[in-house]
Specification:
Elements: E1 5-9, H1 20-26, E2 31-33, H2 43-52, E3 58-63, H3 65-76, E4 81-87, H4 98-125, H5 134-144, H6 149-160, H7 166-169, E5 176-181, H8 189-198, E6 202-207, H9 214-217, H10 219-230
Helix pairs in contact: 1-10, 2-3, 4-5, 4-6
């Protein structure tokens, strides 16, 4: 009998490395697919890329920008999705000043390369207690540097072109599992609480002493939740 299929969807400038710990924990019981969203500049196109390689039925686990792609999958193909998990993500529309911030980030990258982007991002992305964790920060930095400037440009453009996904929430009938670090500066817990309140069927778990990079910062906590949720009987 074939194993259940699970997509692990990475966030901006991320790849399979963000899911290293989850891959180790899940691969015995599940077939895993980890698409990389380099070369894309639209969340709809990213979702189409995932659907093009998807089996008839599958589950989704998504982090950060990958959560935006996951929401498009749930909107477009809810009948094909079994378990659905998102973490450290937002569903809100483009916020005032966001485009200007993106332009400043692109200017930083043009002047200092993705090394400068990684150096500015990492302290903001992880819990303050982990900023001196060389193993963690090196893993994130190395992952970011596998990208090109055009990858960053395309993913920022995708974010600027995004739909206001909050308008989908009230009509969703699929169970949504939500994870958030309690110290996520990028998509804070209150955004996840607001999403949780609008969904008809959802579970919210806030992980203590954790920033935006929950799969890498707190893999044991994330893995325990994923193994429980992905193994649960479908209702």
């Amino acid at each position: 009998m074939s194993k259940p299929f699970v997509f692990l969807l990475p966030g901006m400038l991320c790849d399979a490395a963000v899911w290293e710990h989850q891959t180790a924990a899940l691969q015995a019981g599940f077939t895993l697919g980890i698409p990389v969203f380099r070369g894309f500049d639209c969340f709809d196109a990213m979702a189409s890329h995932v659907l093009a390689q998807a089996p008839t039925r599958f589950s989704v686990v998504a982090h950060s920008m990958g959560g935006r792609v996951a929401m498009e999958l749930l909107r477009r193909a809810p009948e094909r999705i079994e378990h659905f998990v998102v973490m450290d993500m937002g569903v809100h529309a483009v916020t005032p000043g966001e485009t200007e911030r993106n332009q400043r980030l692109l200017k930083l990258a043009a002047m200092g390369g993705l090394e400068a982007v990684a150096d500015s991002w990492i302290p903001y992305m992880i819990h303050t207690d982990r900023c001196n964790d060389i193993t963690l920060t090196t893993a994130i930095r190395t992952m970011v540097l596998r990208n090109e400037l055009d990858d960053l440009r395309g993913q920022l453009l995708a974010a600027e072109r995004r739909h206001d996904q909050s308008r989908y929430l009230a009509g969703m009938r699929h169970k949504v599992h939500i994870i958030c670090g309690d110290s996520d500066n990028w998509n804070p817990p209150e955004l996840h609480q607001h999403m949780h309140a609008q969904l008809a069927d959802s579970v919210l778990e806030i992980i203590p002493q954790c920033g935006h990079m929950a799969p890498m910062e707190k893999p044991e906590a994330v893995n325990a939740l994923l193994l429980k949720w992905l193994s649960a009987p479908l209702s």
